[in-house]
Amino acid sequence: MLAKYFEKIAKELSIRSNQVANTAELLKGGATVPFIARYRKEYTDSLDEQAIMHIRDRMEQLEALDKRRASIIQSIDEQGKLTDELKKQLEEAESLSELEDIYLPYRPKRKTRATIAKARGLEPLAKIIMSQNPGSVLSLAERFVDAEKEVNSNDDALAGARDIIAEWANEHKYARNRMRWLFRRSAMLTSKVIKGKEEEGMNFKTWFDFSERISSSPSHRVLAMFRGEKEGFLRLVVEPQKTEAIEILNKIFVKADNESSAQVGLAVEDAYKRLLQPSMETEMKAEARERADLKAIEVFVENIRQLLLAPPMGQKTVLAIDPGFRTGCKVVCLDRQGQLKHNETIYPHPPQNEVKEAIKKIQSLIDAYKIEAIAIGNGTAGRQTERFIKSIRFHKDVIAVMVNESGASVYSASKVAREEFPDYDITVRGSVSIGRRLMDPLAELVKIDPKSIGVGQYQHDVNQAALAKSLEDTVMSCVNQVGVEVNTASKQLLSYVSGVGPSLAAKIIGYRDTNGPFSSRDEFMKVSGFGAKAFEQAAGFLRIRDAKNPLDSCAVHPESYSVVAGMVKKYGASVDEFIKDEKLRKQVDLKEFVTDKTGMPTLKDIMEELARPGRDPRKKFDLFEFEAGVNNIEDLKEGMVLPGIVTNVTAFGAFVDVGVHQDGLVHVSQMADRFVRDPNDIVNLNQKVQVKVITVDMDRKRIQLSMKNI
Fold this sequence. Notes:
Layout lengths: L3 H10 L3 H12 L4 H7 L1 H4 L4 H30 L5 H9 L3 H8 L9 H7 L3 H9 L5 H6 L11 H18 L1 H14 L1 E6 L15 E5 L5 H12 L3 E6 L2 H12 L5 H50 L9 E5 L6 E6 L5 E7 L8 H14 L4 E5 L4 H9 L8 E5 L4 H5 L2 H6 L5 H14 L1 H5 L18 H19 L1 E2 L5 H5 L5 H15 L16 H7 L3 E2 L17 H10 L4 H6 L1 H5 L13 H12 L29 E10 L2 E5 L6 E4 L20 E10 L4 E5 L4
Parallel strand pairs: 4-7, 7-8, 9-10, 13-15
Antiparallel strand pairs: 1-2, 1-3, 4-5, 5-6, 11-12, 11-14, 12-13, 14-15
Helix pairs in contact: 1-2, 2-5, 8-11, 9-11, 9-15, 11-15, 12-14, 12-15, 13-15, 14-15, 15-22
């Protein structure tokens, strides 16, 4: 990355260029975003992950721009047309569109109407007409009539000249900039149904005759219309007022009021209709698509973040149930580490109705495996199973919790699940996943492709590479924010730790299986492939519960152990005493421990961690219950006020589970008694809310809810 870009990126983020330069250097050296944000605050002046990712992504974009710039300069140079002035323009271009506009006249062309006209010797005529001097254009054209060149009349000559002028107008940098400005300011996105597709495309009925300004069209509408176009039901047009566009072009190209000027005017109108409008339409669609993708990805990754950071119940013995009617309810028992201890099937629902037998089995399992909590999947028969479980009397307190099972079926059929449970079928694997989600959502959900979890909007329509990158960033951020217990973590969870990855994660698991639990962070270096760089990046995020050195179980990085040792030595205490004694820690003057490498931000982080070593940043687990007696969509009545859980947040509202196996929509207009631009300002995923039932459409299984005036 050239240093000239540091200032540019700094301005975009309103930070100093040396912050960008230092961050760029760390990234180039292989440091991960979570590591830089957590352990290199002195170098970046405490930039957060979002700023660091912006620097990384902009560096990649600008490097790609430079590669394209070099390719264009080489192409023009090989044509023998590269002047010092042209090279300067290319080197100063700040965007891809500007670069491509400059290159357009020099781009190798396929056969066009203009190239055909030039081959017929009509370019001199086009230049004469463009000069717009007074005189008869017919007499000018007469000189270029040549049957051998297929120019058989004055009209043929003028038509060819206009084709050349139209191409000049299309390739004119200023004209393209003005058209781009006009389209961005006022172009309308118009959607029409393709004739004959009305019945087949009823899912897109809203867009059969629809128009709005493309610059302000929200992401979900853009993606919906683009999907309709892709599937062949809609035709989309992007265009401002044609008269305004022609007027702008005439001001640029028509310089007089004579016969030649009239020909230029005709050529300009043709240039707009045939070349500029389609070109700008393609560009505006691409920009709208990019904006919509970014917004959809932003919504999706925020939902994923909230889902991954959902409160864990923690290490409890769990009985998990994957509910079902005809096939029964698959039941598994898990120990406190989430290991499968038992599985069987009960049939408490129709058609079998083996209620008494099911009660006896559940009671027996609760006692035999000392179960502390019951996790019930929220899919088919979920509420009925919850009601059944809560009707049973146990000899001790056992909590029952409905668990969102989205994606559990994907996990149960995955390679990961087959590796974990090679001797069990998909029903057992799915039940295990439900139970583990209650214990620790993050540890379990990292095993599933985030796109299969069922949150977000149009995730299969957006740029898949951009989505994958954002999801990777988000999952890695969440995993490292929480930290990972190395002696119990799965390969999938370990692979998201800073500096680890899938290959090293597998080696860590292999070492653990062969040699037993890790006893200290120093032992990481014994793992094949776990070198100094990996240790630097990963050690602070990997925890060892009950390690001999208490610092090994918290977020203090080993590179800072000497700092803690210095503090401990000064006050004549052990590390354990230092952690437990708040009064002792308060005596520390951090300024005494500032060095060239360890600044105040790191020292403050160390003291915060010592105050709450190994703390989990996630919220505390909170039990939630749906309204009793409301189990099916038929139980809903307009005006009902019910408790619910937010299951998905989109740009147009939030979906809420009220316990009837069909989420209801709280449209953004029904979220508050004020205007709401972004639903995330009002609700979060997994948030518990009170909603009012507005309408229930039994035929389409649609529920409209409101959060206003409750």
